[in-house]
Each structure stands twice: as C-alpha cells, then as structure tokens.
Amino acid sequence: MISIINPEQLSTRRQTEKGTARQEKIVKEILAEVKKGGDSALIRYTQTFDGANLQELQVSAEEFDEAYQQVPQSLIDALRQAAQRIRCYHERQKSQSWMVTETEGTVLGQLIRPLTRVGIYVPGGRAAYPSSVLMNAIPAVVAGVEEIVMVTPPGPDNRIYASTLVAAREAGVHQVFKVGGAQAVGALAYGTESIPKVDKVVGPGNIYVAMAKRLVYGQVDIDMVAGPSEIVVVADESANPVYVAADLLSQAEHDSMASAVLLTPSPALAEAVAMELKKQCDRLLRKEIATESIQNYGAICLTGDLEEAVETANRLAPEHLELMVKDPWKWMGRVKNAGALFLGPDSPEPVGDYVAGPNHVLPTNGTARFFSPLGVDDFIKKTSLIAYSHEALCRDAESIITLAEAEGLTAHAESIRVRFKKGEENE
C-alpha cells in the first residue's frame, strides 16, 4: 500500500492544483458573466452547477432558526467550545496603533485599522465544514471587521447545511448567501445586487475557486491559494505505530491528492506503521480517498538519524508537522518551516483542526517557508503616520534634497526647498 524509501527517493513534487488552460478559460468566462449579470448570473450558475433553483440568494432569519432545531445540542456545544478557544487564541494576536514623539517634536507611528468588509468562502457539496467557518470568521471578528459576508453552495433542496449555518451565527458572520464556485468569488470581488463587494476573500475551495481567487487578486485581497492537505510525522523508535498511522490517515482522508509522509530513522517503526496503515485504512468511511492518497502521495522515509529527518521536514515545509519523538521540545528549535507544529503523542493533528485554538487555515505546497497561518493580521491594514516638526525638517532637508536629486526627482527636491525660500513666493 505504501513504499518505504530513503530521503533521496522522496518526491518533492507539490500537490497544488494549478489548473489547465481550459479551466482558466471557464473561470474567466464565469467571472465576466457575474461582473456583467450580477444576481441573475449567480442564480443561473447555481442551478447549473448545484441543481438548486433559487428565488433568493440570502439565507433568511427563519432558515437560521430552523438550523438550530436540526443540529444536535452536543454539536452546538462543541462548536461553542471551539469558538471560545479560537477566539481566546486569536485575541492574543491583536496589534495596537503606536506613536513615538522625538525630542524635536516629530511624531512617527503606525495606525492599525480593520478591513471594512471581508468575504468568507465555505465549501459545501458532499460534506459540511462548520469548523472552517469558525477558523475563517473569528479572526476577522477579533480584528474588528465591520461586516463579514459568507458564501457557500446550496444543495439541490436549495438549503445550506444546518451545521454550517449554526457555525456562522456562533462565529459572528453577518450575512450568508447561497452561492458557491468561481461565481461566488466573483460576486464577492465585484459585488452584485444582493452580495456586497468585499475588501478581501478568504477560505478554501476546489480548483475553480482557487483559480478564481488568483484571477480577482488585485481587485480584492486574498488569503492564499491553498493546495491539498499535507502532514509530515517525524518519529523515532519511541513512537506508537498505531498513533502514527492514525495521524497520517487523518490527512489522507481529506483528498485523494493529500500528502502523508513519515520520516523516521527506525526500520522497525517504518514496518509497523506500514502494517497499521493497511489495517486502519480498511475501517475508514472514506477508505477509497485515503487509499488513493496514500498510494499516490504517501511515503515512509527511512533517514539516517533524527537530524536528517528534521532537515528533510524543513525542506518539505509541510502544512502540518508532528514530532513524535522522545524529547519533542529538544527538536522543536530545529524546525524552521511548518504551518503548524504538534509536539508529542497527545497532540495529534485533529486537535489543531478543531478545538486547540490556533487556526487550521495553513500554508500548503511548501509555502510555509514564507507564509503563515490565517490570523488577525490578515484582517487589518497598517497606515504609517508622519508629523514632522519644523526643526526636524531643517535637520533633514539637505539629505532629502541630495537623495532626490541623485534619483533625478527635482520636484521632490523643490518640495523641500520651497519651504525655506524667503520672499513673495513663500507668502
């Protein structure tokens, strides 16, 4: 089911779906139609792609109330627990505006302001993902975003998953619309009669959603273009093979293109995990997806030692990295590239997906080398503040003029000189 290889054989190919020229053409056509046709284009595409025949795009208050009647109280309680922990974690990320006054009276600083309106895309279709609603919306709420607009595809019955609506209300989403796919991204980017134009679009989706986000970037901001899920487990002989296999499969079941990799210097652990993967995979509800993922993108890699295992993990820069070793705190400092880091046998990746508090929207495809998890900073903007005193301008005038003239920008230099000229022209 899975091969045991050495680091030189470990594929570094990335799993991000880049799409084809034909798919890009389709998305461009959809975006153009939405920009031109507004709500009517959205209703038409929703019927074509989702089989829903909508009269209204916005979810009504009655539909929210019905959702609470349909969702078990145990799930509502779990969502509230997760929301509280996510909110508490992200509160610690908040930045404050600041100013400093220099001796001659100059004031310099930075103003922190939330974005005015953001759009959240939540996948629908075959499964409900209420946790994604919490992870995308709560940091925006904490940042102080005034309006949060959510889009998600309806089913053929014209309805949204009840758990998704409950999560939206618990997270603080202001409006929810029944539209998905590239057309939903276009609606958020351009605005329609019903859906307001936003400043930023966040949230995962399929290849058409990802491509639409790339194409509207610049019209609006986006969070990232994420690829299929990834997990790397670095483990030594102390690791429990049952735990390791279970954690690898927790990501493999997401997507047939998901990547699950074990890096270990222990041949005994490698063999035991290979056997466990086969045993556990046979019991999964999403057995076919997990099997395809493990066969095509999974690997058990035998390294010379733990140091080589960690170095290989840094090269892969995975979305999720687990350290299942005797002393994970000792090795934590050696980790340079990972979206989220999980230490020890009692920190499996799913705790990060749901209730630990850190965001589960993470960089994939090796982009953990330079990207960070979704957080409060993604929903703010920063403005530099400059208030020079005359004394400071006198002090710096010659340097500014010299630099401006060196760059051939004489108007820049004159903007400074004019403030020191005597006579009529300065009156």
TrEMBL record:
Single Gene Ontology BP annotation: L-histidine biosynthetic process
Cofactor note: Binds 1 zinc ion per subunit.
Record: residues binding NAD(+): Y121, Q183, N206
Keywords tagged on the record: Amino-acid biosynthesis, Histidine biosynthesis, Metal-binding, NAD, Oxidoreductase, Zinc
One function term, GO molecular function aspect: histidinol dehydrogenase activity
Binding site for substrate: S229, Q251, H254, H320, D353, E407, H412
Matches recorded under Gene3D superfamilies: 1.20.5.1300, Nitrogenase molybdenum iron protein domain
InterPro entries: Ald_DH/histidinol_DH (IPR016161), Histidinol_DH_CS (IPR001692), Histidinol_DH_monofunct (IPR022695), Hstdl_DH (IPR012131)
Involved pathway(s): Amino-acid biosynthesis; L-histidine biosynthesis; L-histidine from 5-phospho-alpha-D-ribose 1-diphosphate: step 9/9
Enzyme Commission (EC) number: 1.1.1.23
Enzymatic class: oxidoreductase
The family this protein is said to belong to: Belongs to the histidinol dehydrogenase family.
Described function: Catalyzes the sequential NAD-dependent oxidations of L-histidinol to L-histidinaldehyde and then to L-histidine.
Entries under NCBIfam families matching the protein: hisD
Designated name of the protein: Histidinol dehydrogenase
